[in-house]
Recover the amino acids of this structure.
DNA sequence: TAGAAACGTTGACGCTGCGACAAGGTCAAG
DNA sequence: CTTGACCTTGTCGCAGCGTCAACGTTTCTA
């Protein structure tokens, strides 16, 4: 047989056969006078065996090991390890598909936020807020999306979870819109604008209980991730940054009075 | 933020961040005087978005596309395609695991043949045959293993299926052992040895009905895969090859008489 | 009998998503 | 001053082949 025949016989490509030669999986056969490889049945047998093993998902190196020691002992080990591997893969794929399904459902409901795929909780919050043309609202949504996925897929979804009760509040959208509007007006205001203090205080008051617990846990919001806090404030113009600063301070204060604070 | 901070924040490595820069997924930020990259919150937002997308299983190129057109339309398309992809992957992995489970069961029952993983049917046949020290029996097993997996995982398991009834025959092992023994004796005999004809005929008689149907289907065994028939015979010493040839001819004859043959 | 189509040969690059070096420069702390 | 922990660019490596390229051989066909 020539290489094309044996390849077709085993159901692989000629390239694969040559690759197996290069990797030392399959011995090189004799050559004809013209340089063509001449395969016999033994090669077909070995090639078929290689294919059965690779089909199971073994890597070529593992196949080589298995072929090397003629006892079946090694094979069993490899197969068991492989099964564990595949089990993990299957779980991973399934989890991805579940998240995908949730996303596609959101998308078909027209609730897919422009920030890309976010957690279901956050998606509900965004949906409750509805579309907006406020610049700062868009920015805030981005911040929330960021927070939503800090440090890994399970990391720090707590804040969003804490905010979720808001999504069920019928007055929510209206109140938020008003607050965003007032924040927008401060876009180019000075850092000592008199509207800063009251707005900050109202934001503090608007936060649900659950958020306070988080703030208290995190040592008064000090540890918002290395350098993250500064970057957060730096992302706002002066007056708005002041509002945020006052809001954070107010939350910390409120948390201290309510829960008894982190470390004395 | 420096690169290490933003990377930790988003839960990726610095290498990944730089890679995203190179691939144009994430814009390069400003540099400090010393050449360090200086990241702001916007970058963190974008990086987190990239990570959410890659986590779903999107390739970097797809992520780039999704980020490029700011409408969510493309995202939905990509997600749907991805879901199909993952569905196929999941099915493939599950099928492999099922076969693996069957193999491991065989292995634990001590029935794992040295020819490597074969179909359950063939494994039963081998188990029924039991261990043997006959040289030709080992060769035959290899041939069967090869046949078992011709041209793909579902291809041509028919022959083995046709032989399966033998595995349930209580006399099977003994009869086969005797026939193998007589074949072994012909290892170095001449091509005109008088023992050839009767042995060939007995082999024909020993084949189950189902095999005949296969032979008839395949145009009297002529099309045993390009060049395969020759290689098959070439794998035996002269006298044994004669036996096989006579057996094949006898089977074709028997098939013609029984079923009315392929093409007139 | 010539030419095209279908084989074969070796060699080298491409793909994915980074990890892991190398060979440095920078910066804060002890 | 020296560590040690950062940062910089650049390069190779990985799995399992697919896919040219550039060329020789065989075989079918007109």
């Amino acid at each position: 047989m020539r290489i094309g025949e044996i390849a077709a016989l085993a159901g692989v490509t000629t390239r694969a056969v040559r690759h197996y030669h290069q990797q030392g999986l399959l011995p090189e056969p004799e050559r004809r006078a013209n340089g063509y490889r001449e395969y016999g049945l033994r090669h077909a047998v070995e090639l078929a065996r290689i294919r059965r093993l690779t089909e199971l998902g073994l890597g070529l190196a593992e196949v080589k090991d298995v072929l090397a020691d003629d006892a079946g002992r090694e094979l069993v080990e490899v197969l068991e390890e492989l099964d564990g591997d595949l089990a993990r893969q299957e779980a991973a794929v399934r989890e991805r598909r579940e998240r995908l399904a949730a996303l596609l459902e959101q998308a078909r409901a027209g609730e897919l936020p422009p920030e890309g795929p976010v957690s279901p909780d956050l998606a509900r919050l965004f949906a409750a807020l509805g579309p907006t043309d406020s610049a700062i609202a868009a920015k805030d949504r981005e911040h929330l999306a960021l927070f939503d996925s800090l440090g890994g897929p399970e990391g720090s979804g707590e804040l969003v979870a804490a905010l979720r009760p808001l999504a069920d509040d019928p007055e929510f959208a209206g109140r938020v819109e008003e607050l965003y509007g007032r924040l927008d007006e401060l876009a180019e205001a000075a850092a000592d604008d008199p509207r800063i203090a009251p707005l900050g205080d109202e934001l503090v008051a608007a936060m649900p209980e659950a958020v306070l617990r988080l703030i208290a846990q995190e040592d008064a919001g000090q540890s918002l991730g290395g350098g993250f806090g500064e970057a957060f404030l730096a992302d706002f113009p002066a007056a708005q940054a002041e509002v945020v600063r006052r809001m954070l301070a107010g939350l910390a204060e409120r948390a201290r009075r309510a829960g008894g604070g982190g470390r004395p």
Summary: Residues 219-223 of chain A have pLDDT under 50 and may be disordered.
